[in-house]
């Protein structure tokens, strides 16, 4: 399941949510907390692959500028977010969580805007879900995915910490 940044869909009602000044999106400010929230037990799941040692490994990748988090904050509280790895011009989404309606989707919209502005061409969503499909993601054959990766991973920015954008979200990411 992949999402091409230009294919991200924003419904009219979600665009209204994005223009709401009630939330704040931060980038790379609470990486460990985002991972810990993603590791929290979920209904219908027996466990998680996001163990303490996995969190430590990803935090190290974050410190080196490879792993990033997008965090939705409301009234000073972390309410949703996502994290993943940036390699070349590909962002590999690892996991996301939400505690408030649309909080993870807000973080995703800001990620899409960020990667689009910085020349990324592919977001690997990994999991095939109806939710991601409704946002513009689609499944592609493995050989097509491999060809995209081969082209995109060897170009793009050097690993670095990403900054929280200063501008408010506009009608389109």
In short:
With 173 residues, this protein is of the alpha+beta class. The chain contains six helices and six strands; from the N terminus they run E-H-E-H-H-E-E-E-H-E-H-H. It has a single domain, classed as Aminopeptidase, CATH 3.40.630.
Contiguous low-pLDDT stretches (5 residues minimum) are none
Q: Counting H and I runs of at least 4 residues, what is the number of helices? A: 6
Tell how many strands the DSSP assignment holds: 6
Summed over residues and divided by their number, the pLDDT gives a mean of: 90
Q: Give the CATH level 1 class.
A: Alpha Beta
Shape: globular
Determine Rg (CA atoms, Å). 15 Å
Tell me about the largest β-sheet: 6 strands, mixed
Strand content: 15-25%
Q: Give the % helix.
A: 25-40%
Helix-strand category: alpha+beta
Question: Span between N and C termini?
Answer: 20 Å
Number of domains: 1
| N-to-C SSE string, H for helix and E for strand | EHEHHEEEHEHH
Look at the structure and name the CATH superfamily.
Leucyl/phenylalanyl-tRNA-protein transferase, C-terminal domain
Q: What attributes characterize this protein structure?
A:
173 residues; alpha+beta; six-stranded mixed beta sheet
Q: Can you walk me through this structure?
A:
β3 (67-74) and β4 form a beta hairpin. The protein has a single domain, classed as 3-Layer(aba) Sandwich (Aminopeptidase). It has helices at residues 12-19, 31-39, 52-63, 103-117, 130-134, 142-152, and strands spanning 2-3, 23-27, 67-74, 77-87, 90-98, 122-124. It has a six-stranded mixed sheet with strand order 1-6-5-4-3-2, sandwiched between helices. It has six helices and six strands; from the N terminus they run βαβααβββαβαα. With 173 residues, it is of the alpha+beta class. The mean pLDDT is 90. The longest helix has 15 residues, at 103-117.
């Amino acid at each position: 399941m992949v999402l091409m940044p230009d294919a991200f869909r924003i419904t009219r009602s979600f665009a209204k949510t994005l223009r709401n000044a009630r939330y704040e999106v931060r980038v790379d400010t609470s990486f460990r907390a985002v991972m810990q929230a993603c590791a929290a037990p979920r209904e219908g799941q027996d466990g998680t692959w996001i163990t303490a040692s996995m969190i430590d490994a990803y935090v190290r990748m974050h410190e080196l500028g490879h792993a990033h988090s997008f965090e939705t904050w409301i009234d000073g509280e972390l309410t949703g977010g996502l994290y993943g790895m940036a390699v070349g011009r590909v962002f590999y989404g690892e996991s996301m969580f939400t505690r408030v309606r649309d909080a993870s989707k807000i973080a995703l919209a800001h990620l899409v805007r960020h990667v689009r502005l910085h020349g990324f061409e592919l977001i690997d969503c990994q999991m095939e879900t109806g939710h991601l499909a409704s946002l513009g993601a689609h499944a592609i054959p493995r050989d097509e995915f491999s060809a995209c990766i081969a082209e995109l991973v060897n170009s793009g920015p050097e690993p670095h910490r990403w900054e929280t954008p200063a501008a408010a979200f506009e009608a389109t990411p």
